[in-house]
């Protein structure tokens, strides 16, 4: 841009800003900002309450001590002072952590719960503030931690929540890796813990296997190692299978035998694809006892499964009733 063009733009801007209407607007803006500045200064001289978040740390913990439930990471402190002072806290340097010394509360116990005196913490907070600043409230109002020097045990990991599949699938199993975790806690708390539950999960209408990392549900005063596990939800597709199962007589005298018509019946059941080949007719037992037949006054007997493998459902017997005959058999001579 040459000097001629610059002078042209400068003149245009100057005439625009110093025109009669724009000049009045600029004067209005000037007095507006002056008024706002006076209002801000006056407001900052008034007293306000603000909340500060101050870090809280437990220090000097011996190497042989495990903190199973720590102090809260922050204190919420409501303070009162003039606005000019509060601005320094809000926009000034970062708050210095309030430090709690483990040695001040160490009584030589192997485990337990320690309550930190709120008054001591408040004094440490006040030491960081100006003399004109007053503490209105401090939260949490209960400060405690749990420690342990050796009491521990292993507990199994358990599912919490809901796991449901779509209708054509079924839940095969839920596995956790690791399947058990170590829990450290004061003995009074440790005795009450028999399982480690994951934080509740909600899987609905599953149609595929699901793998996820699950955190263990916290227990006040206890620490789980590790505090998370891998959860593997395995589902399977349903299918139907039919096998022919013979009908047996049980508890019959040596001189009597049972004959049914037919001698075998069809057993149809629902099973997962992974077990389809494994389950055979030998896994089912259809038995009729001599005592049942003696109480039966019909020519037919209702069939019931005495035994069937796990993992099958919706079992149907066809026919569910059979004709029967008790035969007299020739006993062998001794």
Automatic annotation (TrEMBL):
Keywords: Membrane, Transmembrane, Transmembrane helix. Signal peptide: none annotated. The keyword Transmembrane applies. It holds the Pfam family YbbR. The chain crosses the membrane at residues 25-41. InterPro entries: c-di-AMP_regulator, YbbR. This is YbbR-like protein. It comes from Paraprevotella xylaniphila YIT 11841. The lineage of its organism: Bacteria, Pseudomonadati, Bacteroidota, Bacteroidia, Bacteroidales.
């Amino acid at each position: 841009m040459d000097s001629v063009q610059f002078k042209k733009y400068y003149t245009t801007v100057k005439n625009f800003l110093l025109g009669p209407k724009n000049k009045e607007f600029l004067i209005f803006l000037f007095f507006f900002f002056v008024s706002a500045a006076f209002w801000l200064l006056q407001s900052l001289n008034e007293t306000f309450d603000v909340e500060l978040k101050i870090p809280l740390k437990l220090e000097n913990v011996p190497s042989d001590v495990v903190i199973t439930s720590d102090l809260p990471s922050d204190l919420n402190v409501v303070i009162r002072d003039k606005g000019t002072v509060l601005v320094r806290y809000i926009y000034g340097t970062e708050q210095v952590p309030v430090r709690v010394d483990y040695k001040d509360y160490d009584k030589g116990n192997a485990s337990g719960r320690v309550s930190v005196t709120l008054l001591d913490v408040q004094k440490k907070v006040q030491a960081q503030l100006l003399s004109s600043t007053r503490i209105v409230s401090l939260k949490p109002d209960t400060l405690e931690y749990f420690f342990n020097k050796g009491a521990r045990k292993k507990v199994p990991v358990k599912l919490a929540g809901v796991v449901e599949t779509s209708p054509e699938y079924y839940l095969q199993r839920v596995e956790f890796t690791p399947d058990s975790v170590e829990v450290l806690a004061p003995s009074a708390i440790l005795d009450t813990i028999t399982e480690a539950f994951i934080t509740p999960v909600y899987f609905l209408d599953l149609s595929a296997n699901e793998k996820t990392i699950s955190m263990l549900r916290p227990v006040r005063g206890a620490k789980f190692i590790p505090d998370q596990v891998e959860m593997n939800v395995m589902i399977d597709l349903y299918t139907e299978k039919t096998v022919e199962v013979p009908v047996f007589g049980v508890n019959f005298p040596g001189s009597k035998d049972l004959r049914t018509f037919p001698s075998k019946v069809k057993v149809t059941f629902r099973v997962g694809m992974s077990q389809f080949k494994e389950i055979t007719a030998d896994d089912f037992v259809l038995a009729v006892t001599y005592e049942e037949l003696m109480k039966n006054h019909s020519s037919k007997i209702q069939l019931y499964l005495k035994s069937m493998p796990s993992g099958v459902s919706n079992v149907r017997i066809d026919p569910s009733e059979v004709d029967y005959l008790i035969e007299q058999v020739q006993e062998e001579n001794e």
